[in-house]
Amino acid sequence: MSMSFDQYMRDSVQPMRDELTNLGIQELRTSEEVEAKLPNAKGTTLVVVNSVCGCAAGQCRPGVAEALKHDITPDHLYTVFAGQDKEATAKAREFFAPYPPSSPSIALLKDGELVHFIERHQVEDRSADQIAADLTSAFDRFCR
């Protein structure tokens, strides 16, 4: 019995997707879904650029999970998956200018405009607790 590469990848990354969707974060899998949600979102929007790398597993996703326990959170929660949903990720990254593509990364937008961004290098060198503290500080500043 042989499994296609695409099926293998879908099965392999599903638990990584589930870590965020189980928190109530909606996946945007196509560029059309991104275009329908991000520019029209009123209030604050968190966008997590998910990834298969170790820093996504060890710091990014756990940091986001911890931050979402805070009293103040964004109005909208979305995720795109770098390397898997390529068109959706590319479209989402258009909203993160002037930052270059980075995964994992975390963006906070207010009324469609970027107000806070955590790049990969800020994930790699920090703990999940430090990422959560960074996010909750941004939530306190922009989500009131």
UniProtKB/TrEMBL annotation:
This is YphP/YqiW family bacilliredoxin. Belongs to the bacilliredoxin family. It holds the Pfam family Disulph_isomer. Signal peptide: none annotated. NCBIfam families: YphP_YqiW. It comes from the Bacteria.
